[in-house]
Amino acid sequence: MRGFKLAGVAASGVLGAMSATAAYGTLSRTSQIFGPSVYRGPGRRRTVALTFDDGPSEGTLDILEYLDRENVWATFFQCGLNVRRYPQIAGQVAAAGHQLGNHSYSHPTLPFKSPEFIEREFSEAQRVITDETGIAPMIMRPPYGFRWLGLREVQQKLALLGVMWTVMGNDMRWPSERIADHVLRRAAPGGIICLHDARGVQAKPDVSSTLRALRVIVPVLKDHGYRFEVISDIMQV
Questions:
Q1: What is the CATH number of the domain that holds 86?
Q2: I need a surface site. Which of 80, 116, 150, 171 has the fewest CB within 10 A?
Q3: Which residues are CB-neighbours of 169 under 8 A, at least 6 positions away?
Q4: Is residue 6's pLDDT more than 80?
């Protein structure tokens, strides 16, 4: 009986370690378990990268107009379903010179999905984004930042680098003042800021809080000597 008890304890310990490893791989921005990814640049220049997830949406146009007025470059991680819904807006993002990233097709949560499901999500998004904008993304960001088994193989197949973030703006649920304060307190050279120009794949999302926060974040960072780079530039030494 003692042997069975010890075996049971050992098995529980192994399962616990496996669960902890899976949780780290899924959630930690520094994890490389489920595929190569970055969450900040080297920080040798006083620059930050503004990134926007989930778009495009109607609200993307107002964000584009503001970025153009401020001469600011950003990176947009787009959902294939939204690109298919708003191909002209997706094209305007690309035409304005901003970097495009793959954010899956339908914005699902990846944990516990099959590798085949994950492959379809990112392959279809890659195809739609490339077809509609003429640009094949070189970077990707999993929805909600959750990674899972099969993602590494998808990244290898599509030649995509995973991109997490240094600071999450939480603009999906916070008012603009709190968003701006949170981002500005955590901004640092080489930082990657995550905001949203849509809300998943819902139609006609309200992104006004994001735009209001952006109108505070950009001028304050400029006053502190920051410049804005796209992901491929901020990763350069």
A1: 3.20.20.370
A2: 116
A3: 179, 182, 183, 193, 194, 195, 196, 210, 213
A4: no
**60 and 171 share one domain:** yes
User: What's the CA gap between 73 and 80, in Å, rounded?
Assistant: 22
pLDDT in tens, 189-234: 999 999 999 999 999 999 999 999 999 999 999 999 999 999 999 9
Residue entry with tokens 């899976």: 22
Q: Is the pLDDT of residue 121 over 80?
A: yes
Predicted TM-score (pTM) of the model is: 0.91
Which range of residues forms the domain containing residue 53? 38-234
Are 96 and 64 a contacting pair, CB within 8 Å? yes
Kindly give, in sequence order, each residue whose CB lies less than 8 Å from that of residue 9, ignoring residues fewer than 6 positions away.
none
3-state helix, strand, coil in the chain (%, to 5): 50, 15, 35
Block residue for tokens 């099959």: 114
91 and 46 fall within a common domain: yes
Count the domains in the chain.
Answer: 2
119 shares a domain with 212: yes
- On the CB side of 90, CA atoms within 13 Å amount to 30
Return the bridge partners of 100, or none: 76
Give the integer Cα–Cα distance in Å for 169 and 18.
31
